[in-house]
Amino acid sequence: MEVILLLITGLGLLLLGGAALVRGASGIAEAYGISPLMVGLTVVAFGTSAPELVVNVIGAIRNQSEIAFGNVAGSNLANLGLVLGFAALITPISIQGQIIRRELPLLLLATTVLVVMCLDVMLRSETAAIDRADGLILLLLFGIFVYITISDFLGQKEDPLLVTVEQITPDLIGNPVVNWLYVVAGCVGLMLGGQLTIDNGVALAARLEVSPAIVGMMVVAIGTSLPELVTSIIAAMRREADLCVGNVIGSNIFNALLVLPVSGLVRPLSIPSGGTIDLLMSLLLALTLIPIFIAAGGTMGRFIGAGFIVAYFGYMTARATGMI
């Protein structure tokens, strides 16, 4: 029981630390004359991925690669299966053409590249791992993603990314002392939360006699994905669920092309058993958005949303019971 409480405490500190870091850094950026748009594209985007990044970096430093990999794979699955599924269950989601044309192909490319990188045993007769060379390749792809995204929406008057940034950029605080206190508190919360999450996640896996990757996928990943889930549910209740798809795909791209490679640069991450299948499942869910856009008129209805949720829990159950 104590391990579970400490794990929940760690996840809570991660979420609060990320929120505090975003708020403080946004206020500091405003004081230097940086526009809210740029704050949203940099500070907010980084801050919302900070919990996953901290967990993975600490996991890599402590050689807990399974829980680090499981966190990314599980977070991407939770974003597609749970976040999109529950949002569509509340109200039908419109999948916009820009997302299918721009963000989704990049996510499919990133996930496919990750799958290929996991085939070291087959391709090079070596232990499967995300090593430093793989990390550099993924970071280069992330740079291309940032360049394409910014260049694309700057040439358009109404871009979904611009609307999303305006929605998620927090109210900025003018007091510089308060801003710095938020930044310091956020960093401390992230570090303490990351350590508690890794330590007690590994301990919980040992007590349950399961792989740390399973705990990473089913507990840590869902915990670090709570901001996206809560934001998407609120957006759906406000009839603004169209923003959910862009947020989810963007978050998954950040996880695949920033969080995972940074962890691999710290220490090569061994691919746990079933890790390649986890990525393939994530790829399948993302691919499903294309026929929905073509055949369903670009609308993800409640029936499809329920299907995503069932697919997610069905897959998680199969992983937990060792069927996969």
List keywords for this structure.
324 residues, mainly alpha, A middle domain of Talin 1, 13 helices, 4 strands
Can you tell me about this structure?
The protein has 324 residues and is mainly α. The protein has a single domain, classed as Up-down Bundle (A middle domain of Talin 1). It is 81% helix and 2% strand. It is built from 13 helices and 4 strands. The strands form 2 sheets. It has a two-stranded antiparallel ribbon. A two-stranded antiparallel ribbon has the order 2-3. Helix 2 (36-61) crosses helix 7, helix 3 packs across helix 9 and helix 4 (97-117) packs antiparallel against helix 12 (275-295). The radius of gyration is 19 Å and the shape is globular. The two termini are 28 Å apart. The mean pLDDT is 77.
Offer a concise description of the structure.
With about 325 residues, the chain is mainly alpha-helical. The chain has helices at about 1-30, 35-60, 65-90, 95-115, 120-125, 130-155, 160-170, 175-210, 210-225, 225-235, 240-265, 275-295, 300-320, and strands at about 95, 130, 270, 300.
Topology:
Blueprint: H1 2-31, H2 36-61, H3 65-90, E1 93-94, H4 97-117, H5 120-124, E2 129-130, H6 132-154, H7 160-168, H8 176-208, H9 212-224, H10 226-237, H11 242-266, E3 269-270, H12 275-295, E4 299-300, H13 302-320
Antiparallel strand pairs: 1-4, 2-3
Structural class: mainly alpha
Number of domains: 1
The CATH superfamily is NCX, central ion-binding region
Radius of gyration: 19 Å
Order of helices and strands: HHHEHHEHHHHHHEHEH
The CATH class is identified as Mainly Alpha
**Poorly predicted parts:** none
Number of strands: 4
As a percent range, the share of strand residues is under 5%
Return the average pLDDT rounded to an integer.
77
Net shape: globular
User: Main β-sheet: number of strands, strand sense, barrel status?
Assistant: 2 strands, antiparallel
Numbering strands along the chain, what is their spatial order in the largest sheet? 1-4
CATH 2nd-level architecture: Up-down Bundle
* Cα end-to-end separation: 28 Å
Helix percentage range: over 70%
**Oligomerization state of this entry?**
single chain
What's the total helix number?
A: 13
In the CATH scheme, what's the topology name? Answer: A middle domain of Talin 1
